[in-house]
């Protein structure tokens, strides 16, 4: 995987065995993408309490629809999405899998064919919200944070958080997954790692990858196998008509 977010000259193909992760800023005029959303997505957007959060949601989901539509050659506003039994969004037909995460002014979209993927981006705050560690981190992860402070604590905290979130989304269990029941690396320098999973997932082969730098944020990707070709791209709205 590259250590940069590349700017494509066109829309890259997505064959099996590859994972594409797209990065975009959501601080754009939401009117450009609002018409692409479904009625359910518009209702979800309207539920946000502030115009800023509403706009970020609209832009992120419009970009997701454009990416999905281009990948399967269906107009973005005609895509049929549904939620699986765990609440994870998916396409109603076909083998294209995706995951969306947005935090602060950033959104990430991960795409792959025939395999589940999970992605997470978190805007970094100083100090980090340590109460999350007490609720969602394993004993091993909490011990790794115990001797840290300042920037080192924030880096380790968000490395754990994004890796755990990406994995839970890839496994498709979301917040129904017991976050304290599995352990990820707390080392921000360990760019690729494997989690220690509970017994019911012992036969799986999930790998975690830290994504290239995102200004003011931390990001991670979870994939269910080794050896996948991972590409990281900048989403340029003009290329997609947004």
UniProtKB/TrEMBL annotation:
Q: Which UniProt keywords apply?
A: Transferase
Q: Does the keyword Transferase apply?
A: yes
The 4'-phosphopantetheinyl transferase domain, residue ranges? 117-209
Question: Which Pfam family is one of those matched by this entry?
Answer: AASDHPPT_N
Domain 4'-phosphopantetheinyl transferase N-terminal span(s) in chain numbering? 34-110
According to the UniProt entry, where is the signal peptide? none
Any single GO CC term annotated in Swiss-Prot or TrEMBL for this entry: cytosol
Q: Which residues form a coiled coil?
A: none
What molecular function does GO assign, one term?
magnesium ion binding
What InterPro entries would the database entry show?
A: 4-PPantetheinyl_Trfase_dom, 4-PPantetheinyl_Trfase_dom_sf, AASDHPPT_N, P-Pant_transferase_sf
For biological process, the GO terms are: lysine biosynthetic process via aminoadipic acid
- Membership in a protein family: Belongs to the P-Pant transferase superfamily. Gsp/Sfp/HetI/AcpT family.
- Which PANTHER family does the protein's record reference? L-AMINOADIPATE-SEMIALDEHYDE DEHYDROGENASE-PHOSPHOPANTETHEINYL TRANSFERASE, PHOSPHOPANTETHEINE TRANSFERASE
Which named protein is this?
Uncharacterized protein
- Give the species: Inquilinus limosus
